[in-house]
Each structure stands twice: as C-alpha cells, then as structure tokens.
Design goal:
Number of helices: 13
Distance between the termini: 32 Å
Number of strands: 32
Number of domains: 4
Radius of gyration: 27 Å
Helix content: 10-25%
Strand content: 35-45%
Shape: globular
CATH topology of the largest domain: Aminoglycoside 3'-phosphotransferase, Chain: A, domain 2
C-alpha cells in the first residue's frame, strides 16, 4: 500500500478511476502550502493533475473544516463571472482517506503573496488590483438563488450574528481584561448599519487566495472558500480592504507604501471602483465605512485572542536530540503557574523599575543575518542595577569564518536605559521599531571555540575596532508577555529560582551595517529575532534548553524551544510558526542533533508541529561560540552551565536562511546533561 503525506494512494487511485476519470499507473501525491486549515495536496493521476483538499484528522468542532460547503459553492459558481477551479468529486466516505475530501482541477498560474507586487510596472500593478476588485464585485452580484445556494446561509441579520459569534469566541478565549476590546464591542453593538443587500461572501478574499493568469492581469481561479456563506457584501469588501489599514509588522499590508509610485489604487479610488462595478453610491458606502473596518478589526482581534489562548492552554511535546538518534519523549503543557495568564503591553519594551531583589535583571537580545552576504551577529545587554553592573555581549560572525566577540561588565547606577560599554538599544516605536548601535572593540578569532577558555582566548587573539548600526522592524506579532494573576496583577516569584517575570519575542527585518577592523559589511533586507526579559533571574535556574529562532523572510519564521526539567518528567516545549503575519502555536516537536567529539553541535533536524502541519527544519552549524557560567556552589569547572551560540544555515519548505542555534546545558565532566537524560530513555 503506497502512502504519501498520510494519503492511502491505492484507495485514492481507485476513487479517482471510479468517480473522476480512468488513468493508467499509480496515483502520486504531495502536500503543498496554503489552504488555510484544510490539508491540501497536488495529486497526479496519469496525465491529469488535481488538487485534493480534506478535513484534518482528529477531534473537530461540528461546523469547522466544512469541505462539503467549499465543494458546493465552487460547483455552484462554475460558469459564472467568478472563475473557480473545476470541482470534480466530493467523497464523504471516511473509509477512503480517513476524512472527507474533494478533488478539483489543478490551475496553473501565479499566486502572489507580496501586496506591493514587486518587479511589476505601475500600470501592471494597477491592472492587477482592478482585476481583484472586479472579481469580488462579480461574486457579490451573483444571483445565489439561481445558483441553488438559497440555503447556503441565513438572509438578513448578518452583522448581528457575526458580532454575537465573535464576541462569544473572544469571551471563550479571553486571558485578561482589555478595556479597548470592551469599548469596541459596545461601540459595534450600538452602531450596526442596515444590511446592504444579501449575497455570497467569500470571507477571506485577498491577493494570495486567487490565481492570476501566468502572464496577464487576469484572475483564473478564486481559492479557499472555507469561510464562504451568505451575508452583507460590504462587510466582505471591507475585510478585503483591510490591507490599506493594518499596521506594518503585523500583517502583509499596503499601509505606509507609496501607492502613487507603485501604481496601486489608494483606498478611496478602490472603493469608488467597487461602487462602479456594483452600481452602489459611493456616499452610501462611505457613510458606514468606519463601522465595517472596525468590525473586521474586531474579528481579527478575536481570532488572535483565540491563538493566544491556545498557546497558553496546552502545548504537548516530544523531546530533543542525540548524537545518533532523536529522543521520543512524552510531553506536558507549557508551564504557567496555576491561575495565571500573560499580559502583553507595548510599554514593556522600555525599562522597568527594578524589583527590590538582589538578582533583578532586565535584558534585551537581538540577532541579525544577511543570508546573501554571509554575515550575522547577536548582541545582548543585561542590566543588573541592584548589583551595580550591566552585562554587554557582542558576537559578530564574518563571511570568512572569523568571529568577533566582546563581553564587558560595566558599572551602572540605575535601570533607565539599555546602554553599556559602547552598546546602545533604542526603542523607536514599541513592538515595531528598534535600533542597535555599538562602538568598541571585538576580539577577532579564527577559532571561535577558543572562547571555551575565555582567559586564554583574550590573551591569544587581537582586539579590533568595530562599528555597528542596525535598524530592526517587527514583521510578526509580539509573543509572550508578563505573567500575571487572573486580575492582571503581578504574581509572587521566588527570586532564588526565578528565570524571569516577563518575556517577549518577535521576528524581525534588519537593515544597516557591521564594520569590523575597517571592513564594512552592509546588511540589506536582512532577517533577525529579538527577545526581552525582566525580573529576578539566576543563570543556574536553567537546567537545559534548545532554542531555535529562525526568520526565513518577512512572511515565514520558526521558533522552537525545548526545555528540560530538573525535577524530572517530560520536557516542555513552546514556540510558534510565523506564516503571513500570523502565529501558529507549536503543539509538538523534537530535535535531533549531531555533535562532534567535544559535544559541540554540527547539524540538526527539527520537527515542528502546529495544528496546520509538521514543518521539517534542517540546520547546518557554521560557527559556534561557547560561553560558560560557573554553577552556584561549584568549587571547580567539573560542573558548569554552557551556552553554545551558533550561526547556522537553515532550510525549510524550499526556503533557506541564516539563523541562530542556541543550546544551554549543564555540563558534567564535559558531557551535556540533556544527552545523558536522553540516553536513559
């Protein structure tokens, strides 16, 4: 029995022969990206190519993943002014592939992800957007009764039902009281406009849910009908227009773009274009336009709240790595103290008033890479104001394999800024834009492993001047927050065992330059990652962890973190996959690591699973800097905490990028404790 991506190809082939078309040979299938929450595959059956969409396996909500509705609406629209793939056959017999599915013809064309349409002339961009507008207007003008869709949804009261639905969804996933959301829900309920007609609404109509002709500005198929129903066309159109409003760094968007130069219509022109196609009065549409936009913002916020709730409610996982084989350990939920939640506040990007504990720490970390030029770095400032000093680390990976490194512990008198020993972190716009600068020396090493003995390394290698100026822009939502109780108040922490009170992380885009020993390396269109933590912190509170933060591009990134538990039991996992401005929480994962004889990582494979799919990430270590911390109470270096900071070449789903591999371990007689634990399994 042949299988591919979980499909029984013998059964699938038999179904195609019986229900679609006969063919010779064996069917072949491969899973593809996209398709929202329904797994999607390309299927080759003889000379014909199809696309298969099926329900996910496992426990599903009754109304979720409505494969039959997708199939039905595409069948109904066949031959209309709305181009759709030819829907071939629906199978609701779960004995064939385990869940219901349907087949449609493969449509060969262009699926475009970047809203600014790079590489096109202004006139072509304008034509592409005009076509997007025309097709959506055509959908809203379809006589759904004549197409047999009179029972595809309820007529009238669409907005009221949507507000009720998303309010209920938000309440079910609420993690803290957000006054702005309460005000918005009340505002929407008081200002519902009369419904402007009833028609087929797509629910997720956007640039990357259509297929354009290979060479012409013409849409040849509209995809992803999972959210389609009957409703108010203006709500659907306003959702499509959200890209003119969404903040940069949260979704792919047109906000802030030079539309006139690009040739892309501004929102006013785009609305007028839609009104001409549909025969609506522009004034009537604009009279309620703020409401339609606000409602769609509310809907997106409720969806994001659901993602956040799922991230807190339970992350199962598998465990890490070994020289020879992967570990396979049962998981446990991501740890949060009972009765607590996370509070996310942009003001936390700034420094905090130190708590009255000796080990209060506030630290920020950035990494940045230009994958085309082969240069990268990570930098960190950790303020320990109650101990009277800061910790500054700067590590630059050069294209020729050399590494520049510097660590300093300068005195500080407070926690008002993140600036130490020539390095400065500036918050230009919280959660969105930050700047990193450094003027100082770096220890320039051709063997970065020399930092295993820092005293010897600083005697052996020369120091050279360095100048760094990098601008970071967030390309993802902020992840994490401060741990608070159900009332939003800070929780009590044991300072002797705490790691942090709050922790945030974010995928970044980076531009600027890195100059070392007179040689300048520009960073253009680079990628990176950043995190911040504050609160009581002891390095020895870490047992071991594996941390893989990789930003492949502005639309795709992966974070996987696996942590060991000193008290024993299954390890903990957390993380996210960034896709198109939205985080998919990690629910399962493992890492297989290849080590050298000194237990430095040489390469790895990670399996990162979200509700959508399992992502396979491969990493090749290019350069590793080992750092060490003596354990509290230790009299020698037979037991210590080691952190390896490795610039790595990563690949996943056809994408490649430079990124970090950070492993923290307790070293006992030169062997990482995590590998000893795995050997006992």
């Amino acid at each position: 029995m042949q299988q591919a991506s979980g499909l029984d190809l013998d059964r699938l082939g038999a179904f195609i022969r019986a229900e679609v078309a006969p063919f010779e040979g064996v069917a072949a299938a491969r899973r593809i990206e996209g398709g929202q929450s329904n797994p999607t595959y390309i299927v080759d059956a003889g000379a014909r190519r199809y696309v298969l969409r099926r329900k996910p396996t496992g426990l599903l909500l009754p109304s979720a993943h409505a494969i039959d509705r997708e199939f039905r609406v595409m069948q109904a629209l066949a031959g209309s002014a709305v181009p759709v793939p030819h829907a071939r056959a629906l199978c609701e017999d779960a004995t064939v592939l385990g869940t219901s599915f349907y087949l449609m013809d493969f449509v060969d064309g262009r699926i475009l992800g970047d809203q600014t349409l790079p590489g096109m002339a202004p006139a072509e961009r304008h034509a592409m957007y005009a076509e997007l507008n025309r097709v959506l207007a055509a959908l809203h003008g379809v006589d759904f009764r004549a197409r047999g869709l009179q029972d595809f949804g309820r007529e009238g009261g669409y907005v009221e039902r949507q507000i009720e639905r998303w309010t209920r969804q938000y309440r079910a996933s609420q993690t803290a009281s957000i006054p702005e959301m309460e005000n918005l829900m009340a505002w929407l309920g008081e200002r519902i406009p009369p419904q402007q007609g009833n028609g087929i609404v797509h629910g997720d109509y956007r640039l990357d849910n259509v297929i354009f002709h290979p060479t012409q500005p013409r849409i040849i198929a509209v995809l992803d009908w999972e959210l389609a129903t009957l409703g108010d066309p203006l709500v659907d159109f306003a959702y499509h227009c959200m890209n003119w409003h969404l903040a940069l760094g949260t979704h792919r968007t047109l906000a802030g773009a030079d539309l006139a130069t690009l040739g892309i219509p501004d929102e006013e022109e785009y609305v007028a274009m839609y009104c001409r196609h549909t025969g609506r009065d522009v004034g009537d549409v604009l009279a309620h336009w703020p409401f339609y936009l606000a409602f769609n913002m509310f809907r997106l916020a409720a969806i994001q709240q659901g993602v956040a709730r799922r991230a807190l409610d339970g992350m199962r996982h598998c465990a890490p790595h070994s020289r020879r084989r992967p570990a396979t350990l049962k998981g446990t939920p991501m740890y949060m103290p009972p009765g607590t939640t996370l509070k996310l506040d942009p003001l936390d990007d700034y420094t905090h008033t130190p708590e009255p504990v000796s080990n209060y720490n506030e630290s920020m970390y950035f990494n940045a890479f230009d994958s085309q030029r082969g240069v990268g770095l990570w930098v960190r400032i950790g303020n320990r104001p109650n101990e009277g000093h800061a910790e500054m680390s700067c590590c630059v990976y050069l294209p020729d394999g050399r590494v520049g490194f510097m660590f300093s512990r300068p005195q500080i008198s407070g926690n008002e800024q993140m600036a130490a020993a020539g390095m400065r972190f500036e918050v230009l716009e919280p959660f969105k834009r930050l700047r990193v600068t450094y003027e100082g020396e770096l220890l320039l090493m051709d063997d970065p492993h020399a930092m295993a003995d820092p005293s010897a390394a600083f005697k052996r290698y020369p120091k050279r001047q360095a100048s760094i100026a990098l601008d970071f822009s967030g390309v993802s939502p902020m992840h994490g927050g401060e741990i608070v109780d159900a009332d939003g108040k800070p929780v009590a922490l044991d300072p002797e065992h705490a790691v942090y009170r709050g922790h945030t992380e974010q995928n970044m885009a980076v531009d600027g330059h890195i100059t070392v020993d007179g040689q300048r390396h520009d960073v253009v269109g680079g990628t990176g990652y950043r995190d911040k933590s504050w609160g009581p912190r002891h390095w020895h509170s870490f047992f071991w962890y594996k941390w893989l933060p990789v930003t492949f591009d502005r639309d795709f990134g992966i974070l996987l973190s696996i942590k060991g538990r000193p008290e024993g039991g299954p390890n903990r996992i957390s993380g996210n996959v960034l896709r198109n401005g939205v985080y998919e929480p990690v629910i399962d994962g493992r890492i297989e690591t290849d080590y050298d004889e000194a237990w430095y990582p040489r390469g790895l494979t990670a399996w990162v699973t979200t509700a959508r799919q399992t992502y396979v990430v491969k990493g090749r270590i290019l350069a590793t800097v080992p750092l060490r911390h003596k354990r509290v109470g230790a009299t020698d270096w037979s037991t210590y905490t080691r952190i390896t900071e490795s610039m790595s070449a990563y690949s996943c789903e056809g994408r490649t990028a430079l990124g970090m591999t950070e492993y923290c371990d307790v070293m006992n007689d030169g062997v990482p404790i995590s590998t000893r634990e795995e050997a006992l399994e």
